[in-house]
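Q: Hi! First time doing this. I have a protein sequence and I read that you can turn it into a structure. Is that right? Here it is:
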Amino acid sequence: MRRHLVGPGGDTGRSAGPAGARRVVVPVLAALVAVSVAGGCTPRTPGAARTAGPGASTSRAPSVPTAPGDPPSTRPAPSAPSARPTPSAPSAPSAPRTSAPPPKVLWRVGDSGVAVRGLQARLRAIGWLAAAPTGTYGALTAAAVRGFQGKRGLPGTGSVDTVTWARLTAMTSRPGPAELHPERVRPTDDPDRPDPRCLTGRVLCLSKTSRTLRWMVDGKVRTTLDVRFGGSVTPTREGAFRVTLKSRDHRSTLYDTPMPYAMFFSGGQAVHYSADFAANGYGGASHGCVNVRDRGGIAALFDEVRVGDGVVVHW
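A: Yes, that's right. Below is the predicted 3D structure, encoded as structure tokens:
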């Protein structure tokens, strides 16, 4: 009995003899090989099944359902679950801030020498120290330094540190021999004795040592007032002069400041009332004039002094 093979179109093929069998088996095997080769070269698509190798995970990504008829390329890829934020380690505490070291102290009470004498001369030039330089840092020098520091917002230690010294040198010039060792015309046994040039006639006797104005007539003191002189940069000139001009309501054209009751004796230098001296005392200095802080006293003196009267500025 012979068997007939039916082809794809339903036609009857040849008998399945040995040759016919070979003709059928060969195409089938070729098709299987082609399928096997194609399966190994085609890129994998998301969700495609794959064989797990040794040690590989067998979990599959969840499939995403699509509507009927949607092309595979429009399927959204499954999103990976968001990772939980890892708590950060607490930050190390910042190191405490260290304050700047205090300025270096240059001179204090008990020190002595040429440098201390120069310090005293500078303090004296701007009206903080009344006594002449001695070269010894004592209580008077400490008080003068403390006043200078307080006026400029510095710690009132009474000792001269680098900051205090920088402020003082910026305001003053280097003292000369006459300022370091001022000559005294009065005998040492009477430090407040008037200059001999003040003992004759009508004289405004101005002492830089005692910082006083004495109005003297024929050797007798009529009036005494506190005064302030110029600093080292603009010192009040020393010597014997005459009153050359009186101006009751004078105003400085150079510094644009009022100079009431001005009595000029040497160029632009004059004896006059100073509101700054009245308010701040010896915490500063003039630009060369002789400042008076007693307004009533200078007003009365202005009416008594005449043009041509003597003026003596001395130590």
